[in-house]
Amino acid sequence: MYALAAAPPLSPRIPRRAVRLLPLLAVIALLATPPLGGDGSATAADAACGVLVVWALVQVVRSGERPLSRRAALVMGLPVTGICVAATGAADASTAVAGLGRYLQIFVLVPLAVLLLLRDRDDFRLAARAVVALALFEGGLGVQQYLTSTGASYMGEDIRAVGTFGASDIMGMATVVSCGLLCAVGLALDPAPGAGRAHRGAALGCAALLLLPLAVSFSRGAWIATALASCAMLFLSGARRALVVLTSLAAATVVLVGASGPGSQMLQERLSSITQVESAPDQSVTDRYTMWAAAELMWRHSPLTGVGLKGFPAHRDANSSLALSSGSDTAGAGAAFKRQPLLSPHNMYLLVLSEQGLIGVVTLVGGWAALLIAGVRRLLRARRDGAPLDCALVATGLLAWLLVDFFYGDIGGPSTALTALVLGLAAWWALAARGAARP
After folding, report:
1. Residue 80 in contact with residue 104, Cβ under 8 Å?
2. Which residues pair with 335 in a beta bridge?
3. Confidence of residue 386 (pLDDT cuts 50, 70, 90)
4. Domain ranges within the chain, ordered by starting residue
5. Which residues of 60-94 are buried (b: 16+ CB within 10 A; e: fewer)?
6. Alpha-carbon distance 377 to 354, whole Å?
7. What is the pLDDT of residues 94-145, one digit of tens each?
8. Residue (of 410, 389, 349) closest to 175 by Cα position
9. Helix or strand or coil: residue 151?
10. Looking at the DSSP assignment, which residues form a beta bridge with residue 330?
11. pTM of the predicted protein model
């Protein structure tokens, strides 16, 4: 970020950097495009992910250098074991190939490509800024949907902000906006030398603007994950600053909810429902609890290897109680009413446990834990050395958001490619050579 700010507007460094990172920036930009063949099909962002992986491989071959340290190779390659073992337990060959390709794309190949492609902090900051730009676009469209009642259906009204992701992926816009908000917060908390007050003000302004679309997404999981990740970033940047900022945010939240017009009561009801999931759960919460219990039963039947990749839908009914509904209702945002089947437990940890067993939990979830621990340790070391913390805070905040959100959701939908990018950014900060992370 500071190199981009300090360089003259016509410096040739920026175009060269943008060209080298073009496949990565293309993935971020194409996240705003709808699926190529309708709901549930591949997206342009998925195709761009393939180009990104090939591009990173070409860059590594051209450089002729050792691309990864032993620790990085171990952490990034560890999930392959659990994924491959689970693929052998899939229901049929086509299911095995589809599940293997998807999991390798999201959790291994794309994160590894991002790790290999980013060379320094300036590359990281450019990617973070691109995520903020995408979030502003999606958030602006979402707010328009809320104000004009052209969004997805919620409580009988078409007011739920979903951006370009549509009613079939109601978490898509919330995911993008949350990640963009965290990127903006990280870039503002501890900007690089030479960035100036204008850059910090712009980042803070972007974060403030993204609060409204996040609110009208009505996504409780995204709210919780964003709040916890933001608090973690604030305290990692300094306890005194965290207390001041949190006090200001609490006051701003009260004003935001009170000034949201006709939707203020819906926002308050949605917020209060977070604490009522045990005493008075709605049908969506009941379905989620039922599928969580079904995932646990699947794991008990196959504790070591699970039921196989993509096996949850086939085993769901045999392990579910009568409390499970046949699906969730989706409508609005340009789509007709549709009954969408419940094909996952909406909890990534339970999905891995049920389909990949203990082997998958140890290899896949263990890799995420290793990234978080290594990232926090490098952040504390950078703070002790007086280095700028913007990249560290962004990477740690994004990973923390993802790990919290995985308690309420899992992979699936057009926004899944962003999950791979988040893991790649976190992997770069945690595992890249120390020279690359220096200011």
Report:
1. yes
2. 332
3. confident
4. 2-281+338-437
5. beeeeeeebeeebeebbebbbebbbbbbebbbeee
6. 32
7. 888 888 999 999 999 999 999 999 999 999 999 999 999 999 999 999 999 9
8. 410
9. coil
10. 338
11. 0.89
